[in-house]
Design a protein that fits this description.
By secondary structure, this protein is an alpha+beta fold. The chain contains 24 helices and nine strands.
Length: about 525
């Protein structure tokens, strides 16, 4: 299938909505949970009111549209930034400090003749690849894989970059370094200062010797080799962003994706956001087979650039931001800081918020028509507080719009199979009781208690449904519409503050509103 991105094949989102509204509404599909005003008994057959199929509108919202490449890139960088705060040694602030200390070497390498990257981009690559550690190794103790400041693989170093590495000697020295490091740790534990000092001297000498036989461990050499690779990649692929993407994906693999897409060279933002299982199945299949985050590598490079810029501008602000981001396994507390999102104290507070429009009762018919079933167990502890389960079946409008978008898109891609929502809003008392009865319930502040979070069961109708659900989640993360984590039994997601503004039209289609 040829690529999209033209006005004919990727019409404006409002035009898609207009077409759907012109077609009209469909009869609601019912399943599970009952309407929001049902009792605690068996689910009702349907909720009153019309509902529409929002599948086409949902998929249109997830696709590339020309004219705002910078916006797509910024959202993708934000959406995939969490690991760059949570999974780097010492945290984002310490890592940024290590990387910044390499500024002279990075600037020198980036200033090489015909270099396809500037210093800021090369710096971001160092942040992402090694967190600024010259001796980093993808697999500890194994030098045949990716090692060094820019994580160059041994075979690539010798065969493409001409680094002339003695891998056998490097591996032997690496084994000795590991052995001496363990000895130093034991001596430190015993308080044997003299032995530990001798050990550190030996460790230094081993490192110097290894650097002579394996220049990947020399920052200047590693950076120069990386620039050489990117120069080759840009000459082959024609674009800097594609060259950077290929640093993780590989030049040949990226060429295969581009060939399947139907263009030899396009902006990566177009390639990524325009490829989906429905319109670009061959390119999607290739991209989805990469299990090493190759497809999102460029977005994480941009995220690292942002972190380094924030570090130079205001380290304290970066530290505060990192603290919020790393509170949870996703960006949800950064999206909705607990300090500005007070929880609902009790069922009465939820009732008032629903009446005031701050929360929206789950529209069961519209959800059913768009691939979302509501579990009959949602709100199952309500009886403990003399409340109907329907009290705990509501969401912030943005989260509801995100839920509808997920359901409608997955439904359109899989053909009528349901995902099951298991949890929506809770209050403080409900959350406390849940914590006492369920080991999986978070002991920290839960955004369920502010109406932003939703849980969807990981019990799927088919492998295809699971795969398409993963695609939609990742795409919405790339658009910075949601932040999500995989828990033992559910996918837990939180919608962004602007989800209502960006996905509200899809919700309106689902609700059958013109």
């Amino acid at each position: 299938m040829p690529p999209s991105g033209t006005p004919r094949r990727d019409r404006a989102f409002l035009a898609v909505l207009g077409l759907l509204l012109a077609i009209g509404v469909i009869t609601a599909i019912t399943r599970g949970g009952g309407p929001a005003n049902s009792s605690d008994k068996a689910p009702a057959t349907s909720a009153k009111g019309a509902s529409g199929d929002a599948g086409s509108a949902a998929l249109a919202a997830l696709r590339y549209r020309p004219g705002n490449d910078d916006g797509f890139e910024q959202r993708a960088a934000a959406g995939f930034s969490h690991p760059l705060y949570a999974q780097v040694p010492g945290g984002a602030l310490a890592t940024a400090k290590r990387v910044a200390a390499l500024d002279p070497e990075i600037k020198q390498a980036a200033s090489a003749k015909n270099s396809p990257v500037d210093a800021d981009t090369l710096e971001a690559l160092v942040y992402l690849e090694s967190a600024g550690r010259p001796n980093a190794a993808a697999v500890p103790g194994n030098v045949t894989g990716a090692v060094g400041l820019t994580q160059i693989v041994g075979e690539t170093a010798n065969n493409l970059l001409g680094m002339k590495i003695d891998l056998s000697r490097s591996q032997s020295l690496t084994n000795q370094i590991a052995k001496v490091s363990k000895q130093i740790a034991r001596w430190d534990a015993r308080g044997s200062k003299a032995a530990a000092t001798r050990g550190r001297a030996k460790l230094h000498d081993l490192g110097v010797t290894r650097a002579k036989v394996d220049p990947r461990f020399v920052p200047q050499a590693a950076l120069a080799a990386t620039v050489k690779y990117l120069t080759i990649a840009k000459k082959t692929l024609g674009r800097e962003d594609l060259a950077i993407t290929s640093y993780h994906m590989g030049i040949g693999n990226l060429q295969r994706v581009l060939s399947a897409y139907g263009r030899p060279s396009v902006p990566y933002v177009q390639l990524y956001f325009d490829v989906d299982p429905q319109r670009s199945p061959k390119a999607y299949t290739i991209l989805s087979r990469f299990q090493d985050d190759s497809a999102t590598y460029y977005w994480r490079i941009l995220a690292a650039k942002t972190i380094m810029a924030e570090y130079r501008k205001d380290p304290n602000a970066l530290a505060a931001q990192a603290k919020l981001i790393t509170e949870k396994a996703s960006n949800e507390d950064f999206m909705h800081p607990p300090a500005t999102n007070p929880p609902f104290a009790n069922a009465s507070a939820i009732k008032k918020a629903t009446a005031d429009g701050d929360l929206v009762a789950l529209p069961i018919s519209a959800l059913n028509a768009n691939g979302i079933a509501v579990s009959p167990a949602m709100g199952e502890l309500a009886g403990k507080f003399d409340q109907p389960r329907s009290r705990y079946r509501a969401l912030r409008r943005g989260s509801l719009a995100a839920l509808v978008t997920i359901g409608a898109a997955v439904n359109d891609l899989t053909g009528g199979k349901f995902l099951t929502a298991t949890s929506s809003v809770r209050d403080v008392k409900y959350q406390a009781l849940l914590q006492a009865e369920t080991v999986q319930a978070t002991k920290a502040f839960s955004l369920h208690t502010a109406g932003w979070a939703v849980d969807i069961s990981r019990s799927y109708a088919s492998g295809k449904q699971a795969q398409m659900f993963q695609f939609v989640l990742t795409r919405m993360q790339a658009l910075d519409l949601i932040s999500w984590v995989r828990e033992p039994e559910v996918i837990h997601f939180t919608a962004a503050n602007d989800a209502d503004a960006r996905l509200g039209p899809i919700l309106e289609v689902a609700l059958g509103h013109s």
